[in-house]
Amino acid sequence: MSNTLRITRLSMALTVAASLAGCNDLPPEPHKAVTPIAAEPPRPPEAQVATPTPTPTPTPIRATDDERKLHPTTVVKDDDADDDQTIEPSEALAGARKLLAAGKGEGALRLAKIAALRSPKRSSAWNVLGRAQLVLGKRKEAIASFEKAVELNPQSSHARNNLGLALIYDKRYEEAVDSLEQAVELEPVEGYMWNNLGMAYEQLDRLDDARDAYDKAVAMDSDRARSSLSRLDGVKSVIRTAKVDAPARTGTSAPADNESKEGVGGKTDDIGKGESPPIP
């Protein structure tokens, strides 16, 4: 083979080899899209401690205009309430009872007014208020408070008894008898109620009725009724003597019973011996 042919073949072989070598030069891989790393979700803010809402100061219950019109003589003023507005009506009522039992009328009156102002529909609050007023000699105010207590609870024998006693002190004997008769009808086993009723009868010169009431009270171990009964026996003895002796001395007919009593000093009953019940 001639050299020219060999050179030609060699040249062709090199060309083919070069072409094959070029096929290996692959284009660079395209850049892959990089998925961004998700940002960490924001953390919730730390729990905040709630600031407690201050408890509002309770507002005392005031007596309504209707109540004032219904009981115009009840002297319970709003400004009588204690400066400490946080005191509960039940606490005030319990405190008033304790002070009454200890004989501390002024302190009992202050607390009882708070109880009545803040619980105006509570019969026992008005009853205790009346007791405090009566202890301090405030008869008119006490009567109004007891009337309010009876109005709120007509079945309260304690309130009716106390009303009757206050009416005796105020010399309103007919009204006292009415209230006390209802008290003993509601609770006929309380000696002090019968004693007070006997006292009211005696002031009206109903001496037989008074004796019957005192007898019932004595049967229930009322020492005051025993004293009243002994006194009543003395009064009736004086009346009987006056009836017998007067015609012989004067030549006139015997005076009526009430006239004889007036002649020996008038009403003999000691109003201070009326009895109040245990503080309800």
In short:
The protein is 60% helix and 0% strand.
Q: What layout of secondary structure does this protein have?
A:
Layout lengths: L2 H21 L41 H6 L18 H13 L3 H14 L4 H13 L3 H14 L4 H13 L3 H14 L4 H13 L3 H13 L3 H28 L6 H7 L17
Helix pairs in contact: 3-4, 3-5, 4-5, 5-6, 5-7, 6-7, 7-8, 7-9, 8-9, 9-10, 9-11, 10-11
Short key terms for the protein model shown above:
single chain; 280 residues; Serine Threonine Protein Phosphatase 5, Tetratricopeptide repeat; rod-shaped
How would you portray this structure in words?
- The chain is mostly helical and 280 residues long.
- Helix content is 60%, strand content 0%.
- The chain folds into two domains: 91 residues, Alpha Horseshoe (Serine Threonine Protein Phosphatase 5, Tetratricopeptide repeat), CATH 1.25.40; 127 residues, Tetratricopeptide repeat domain (Serine Threonine Protein Phosphatase 5, Tetratricopeptide repeat).
- Helix 7 runs parallel beside helix 9 and helix 8 runs antiparallel to helix 9.
- The chain has twelve helices and no strands.
Portion in helices:
55-70%
Give the CA-CA distance, first to last residue. 150 Å
Question: In DSSP terms, counting alpha (H) and pi (I) runs of 4 or more, how many helices?
Answer: 12
Structural class: mainly alpha
- How much of the sequence is in beta strands? under 5%
Oligomer: single chain
Biggest β-sheet strands, sense, barrel: none
- Based on CA atoms alone, the radius of gyration comes out at 51 Å
Compute the number of structural domains.
2
Q: Low-confidence stretches at least 5 residues in length (pLDDT < 50)?
A: 56-75, 242-272
Order of helices and strands: HHHHHHHHHHHH
Average the pLDDT over all residues and give the rounded result: 73
| Name given to the CATH homologous superfamily of the largest domain | Tetratricopeptide repeat domain
CATH architecture of the largest domain: Alpha Horseshoe
- Number of DSSP strand runs: 0
Determine the CATH topology of the largest domain: Serine Threonine Protein Phosphatase 5, Tetratricopeptide repeat
Shape: rod-shaped
